[in-house]
Amino acid sequence: MRIDPPGHLQPAGTVPPPNEVCALLARRLAAETEGEVLFDAASRGRYATDASIYQIMPAGVLVPKNERDVATAIDIARELQVPVLARGGGTSQCGQTTGAALVIDNSKHLRRMLELDVSARRVTVQPGLVLDHLNAQLKPHGLWFPVDVSTSAQATLGGMAGNNSCGSRSIAYGNMVHNVLGASAWLSDGALVDFGPVATLGARAADIALYVKQLAGQHRADIAERWPKVMRRVAGYNLDIFDNQSERPYTADGSVNLAHLLIGAEGTLAYTRSLTLQLSELPRAKVLGIVNFASFHAAMDSAQHIVKLGPTAVELVDRTMIELSLANPAFRPTVEKALIGKPAAILLVEFSGEDRAELLYRLQRLAELMGDLGLPDSVVRMPEEAAQKALWEVRKAGLNIMMSLKGDGKPVSFIEDCAVPLEHLAAYTDGLTEVFAKHGTRGTWYAHASVGTLHVRPILDMRTDGAAKMRAIAEEAGALVRKYKGAFSGEHGDGLCRGEWIEWQFGPSINEAFRAIKNKLDPIGLFNPGKIIDPPKMDDGALFRFAPASAPQPYRRIPISPVLDWSAWNVQADPVTEETTPPGSGGDVTGGFAKAVEMCNNNGHCRKFDAGTMCPSYRVTRDEQHLTRGRANTLRLALSGQLGPDAFTGEAVRDAMDLCVGCKGCKRDCPTGVDMAKMKIEFLAHYKRKHGRTLADRLIARLPEYLHTARRMPWLFNLRNRVPGAAWLGERVLGLSARRSLPEFRSDTFWSERDATLFTSRDMVIAAACSGRKSAVLFVDTFNGGFESENAWAAARVLKAAGYLLHTVEKFSGHYCCGRTYLAQGWVEEAKAHAGALVDALLPLAEAGVPIVGLEPSCLLTLRDEALAMGLGDKAKTVAAQALLFEEFIAREMREGRFKLAFQPVEKPILLHGHCHQKAFGAVSPILEVLKLIPDARPELIESSCCGMAGSFGYEASHYEVSMRMAEAALLPAVRSRPDAIVLADGTSCRHQIADGAQRQAVHVARLLDALMA
């Protein structure tokens, strides 16, 4: 019996089962599996979306711990007639992984490499294994899996098989279907079947193969007539495995492999247990040529000629993506190296192979070819692999960069993967451009130009007239695809946005053959209903994440008065000119906060584990809840009333935000600019206002205020660290972990023991700056002034020795504070008062052009970040423009020839751990630059995420275990592995974590320089 949701007017897979059925499903899963059973509204909401425009609330979520959990869940779901939806990274762009079903998340536990045969170049993997993680394990063997999708850091192999993923180098290696050797999968009746070469099949699989072969024979004429003859055809089911229509056959010898029937099936035919993949040898060398074009048309027209040189990739980057990349501090330096002037588009042309000399010759041939095409001197040659890798990372982030446009209008995926023969590519793009202009929008373009697949997304506002424009554009784009004999779905699958176009592409006869295949393998419609067969309309507003006013439940925002300034997001943008309205004019009743949250398009970039900071809590928990994306979705659901009227200050949001350490990694690493650290401050302000502050909150926030009292009687404040039982009592009363030592208060603080010979008056420093003399103001923060005063004294001595006239701001009753400790507790009003006083004290110096030099990254960078969002006006901007970390200042002065100081050589190796905020602001490289001043220095950067302390986070008993897991992920093992090394860390919290976790003293860079002054 086919599983259909109640109500015959609703498409399959869009309406969840009755509540009592969901409740029974949850109870049985909890009792009969070892997995995590997530049926609360917030958890379901976090799995209701993927990287598409759609949102469908699932019946519930299971995170299985083992394969037995999956098999049991399938049996339970079948008995209760609840659909099942397999999910990996949740990054599908067409809505494949959204549905009113039991979502089973493979990505947390089912991620092992099961078997590797190096000689045969094959590997068997579980479906939740991420592509980059597989390739990392293969690299020592000189192998890789070459379907290199742009989301390789988060895409799972099971998801890639479901979509028939392709990647930038498909011209050389083919699609997913060309690289799969076999699959083991459960059918809806619970049978576990091995799919592979026809000659090796068991009885059940052989019966399926015979059935599909007969279908192919029956529809041979229609297949020959209607099937797209391009490699980039991923729609429907691969009925042509018995009658190949692709320009690249599925197998090298023309044999039939039944596993290919499952590739691209979007999890609608079976549930994958494992995949066996064909591997390739890693190329020994690569070179890259970047061709700059004055017009987009010229780039498209040139692709057909460039592919004749035998490249492994030809990728398009258009002007919009170039501009957005230049605006991103993480990408700008890389992109600038690839440009000649201001091109309208560039093509990244890669050659790879064994012989580097041959590749360099091909790069020369490329330059000659462009000259023959009337474009001399248009190629930037990039033979160095490090530079190539950096540029490919920008290209990989292309889609997400495009989504960073502010305003409600966003580039929408629905025709973006249409593939046409290369000779028609320029004409096709010209035609699409005219279609977009006709409907008052434009497209953002990037592409696999080598295979005629264009990622083009027209900018539409799905809350208003976007749906109507989407259908009209799809119909006209479809006519162009048919005219040029292309494929409507060329890479990312069909899902919800292209499912209804399958019959248009293939015709009713083949569509019925697809239905027959679905019925043969899944006669009860258990797996992912509503995809490929009987899909809903692409413009059904009820299924949109941002449902329009015409939908039964339109998207809305609950009014709030934000405490931080989010007006930069509260704008609207013209889809054609890209011009935005003034800040604050976007009509958002949350003052722009909701719009900032909605910048998350679920691309899953925060799920990556490679270099960078984002997202440390996810890296140790692998829970969707503790992911930047998961938090953004939780906030969006709360701010739109989907979790209840008071959800924004409720426990679901609190739980989601709990493990956010405020590292600001997302501020830099998230391509769409989701700044979760700042969002947590906003949330905490509202939450604490409603629920009140604890004693620990007040003690942590007010630390700068009672610091000067504590220095008069430090023995009293330090009793907690020394009296037996005091730490245990402190944990019970304050929630501060007894397993942590707390910073020691001291009487000899920077302010009580300040060396007056190092500093001069404000007026003298201002006069010196105005006369061009070297000068600076040293901003001494709470931590480096009150607890580790040696750092402040060392910094002052170094700058004084280098010839700088110094001043430091302080007041009679204490010291000036940036408000960091208050912000960490969501106490924005108090933070604003303290930051405002500091800004006022620094303003005359900043106006005179005196650099403001700070030591603690979280404090100094508050002036460049949160202080600008507190409503302090232009004076905060003036101060921020002069604010530099100690090493940033020295590095700048070095480049300008103003800092000249001799240092003694160092014999020991140097390990450097960058503070999260330094990483977020690109302030780690200046440290390495400054360390070059030390003769014989061999600094090594520890490739780590957050150290786990994050201010007070790691001190809290409830967070101690997570904090230590963060530290053990990379930082502490690296420190322990080099017992002879000098360990550098600018962050107070980082130094404390290293001391607690590795029993090693880490020092601020200022102290190292001070100790080595000649």
Automatic annotation (TrEMBL):
InterPro entries: 4Fe4S_Fe-S-bd, 4Fe4S_Fe_S_CS, FAD-bd_oxidored_4_C, FAD-bd_PCMH, FAD-bd_PCMH-like_sf, FAD-bd_PCMH_sub1, FAD-bd_PCMH_sub2, FAD-linked_Oxase-like_C. Transmembrane segments: none annotated. This is FAD/FMN-containing dehydrogenase/Fe-S oxidoreductase. The keyword Metal-binding applies. Coiled coil: none annotated. Residues 54-282 form the FAD-binding PCMH-type domain. Residues 650-680 form the 4Fe-4S ferredoxin-type domain.
